[in-house]
Specification:
alpha/beta; Quinone Oxidoreductase, Chain A, domain 1; Rossmann fold; 2 domains; 7-stranded mixed beta sheet; 6-stranded parallel beta sheet; lipid metabolism; NAD(P)-bd_dom_sf; NADP; hydroxylation; PTGR1
Length: 319
């Protein structure tokens, strides 16, 4: 007979408390595009990486009291112990700060890693100026829609690229993007030229591939490009990567600045991003949307759906 979840919790708690200080249970888990890029590095039977919000359900620790909510890079598992946190400092467990009546799940999205990625990746690398034209690919995802909204706050004209007209309607009607381009429809280059007749000043690149080659071809002199990801190649065979139009000519003649980044570069400034994003939310300048999947057993389904563009905003699993 299959062991009940409650009995499993009791057995795990009793066993691990011989050596551990707390036991936490997942409440929300995150699925993000970057996970696909790192999947080939995982060892068989290891825990799949990813952040989660968890609740301390048993504790002998003054640092992590009972019923405290925490965020940590615990991966795809429902229960985590203090023993695992001690063995792996990269789990980086943190007690959730107070952000009033906002949903706890936002700490995995607009008030978490994706929010910091948008904040630092766009502002530090693109250095946008009022009146400039900004293009965002993967614009309806957790990072892309956030970048576009920051660009609007900074007084820019914003063009979002995504693969679904419903997403485009959300970007323009609700988030205030100036234009939307569905990359699955023909004439991407012609449409971009129509929406950005004076050229593109800043490009926030989430996808790579031919879409990015097209945008780079229409950038202005001394344009700035922040490379956040390459979703177009995440499902590719790494021995036969997809080809795209050569971009070096555009880069040289337009003297473009192109810089890739990993958000951990700004780990010592995470609170800055958190506080500013929280302020923008409270002021009504920054909106958020979550695509929530119910059930731990549906994590992989939600992950695949996200990679196929099935989410609008942040993809979240509610356990």
């Amino acid at each position: 007979m299959e062991m009940s979840l409650q009995l499993k919790k009791i057995l795990i708690s009793n066993a691990f408390f011989l050596i551990a200080e707390f036991l936490s249970e997942a409440i929300y888990l995150s699925v993000d595009p970057y996970m696909r890029a790192y999947e080939h590095l995982r060892q068989l039977e290891s825990v799949f990486n990813g952040s989660q919000i968890a609740k301390i359900i048993d504790s002998r620790s003054k640092q992590y009291p009972l019923d405290t909510y925490v965020i940590g890079d615990f991966g795809w598992r429902s229960l985590t112990t203090g023993e695992e946190e001690a063995k792996d400092p990269e789990l980086s467990i943190r007690i959730l700060p107070d952000f009033a009546k906002l949903p706890l799940s936002l700490r995995l999205g607009v008030l978490g890693m994706p929010g910091s990625t948008a904040y630092f990746g766009f502002l530090e690398i693109c250095e946008p100026k009022a009146g400039e034209t900004v293009v965002v690919s993967g614009a309806a995802g957790a990072v892309g829609n956030h970048v576009g909204q920051i660009a609007k706050i900074k007084g820019c004209t914003v063009i979002g690229i995504a693969g679904d007209d419903e997403k485009g309607k959300w970007l323009v009607d609700e988030l205030g993007f100036d234009h939307f381009i569905n990359y699955k429809k023909p004439y991407l280059a012609k449409t971009l030229a129509q929406y950005a007749p004076s050229g593109v000043d800043c490009y926030f690149d989430n996808v790579g591939g031919e879409i990015s080659s097209t945008v780079l071809s229409q950038m202005n002199l001394f344009g700035r490009v922040s490379v956040c990801g390459s979703i177009s190649s995440y499902n590719a065979d790494y021995s036969h990567l997809p080809k795209a139009t050569i971009t070096q000519g555009f880069i040289v003649m337009k003297q473009l600045k192109i810089e890739g980044f990993v958000v951990h570069r700004w780990d010592n400034r995470q609170n800055e991003a958190f506080q500013q994003n929280l302020q923008w939310i409270n002021e009504g300048k920054l909106k958020y949307k979550e695509t929530v999947t119910e059930g731990f057993e549906n994590i992989f389904k939600a992950f695949i759906s996200m990679l196929q563009g099935g989410n609008i905003g942040k993809a979240i699993i509610k356990v």
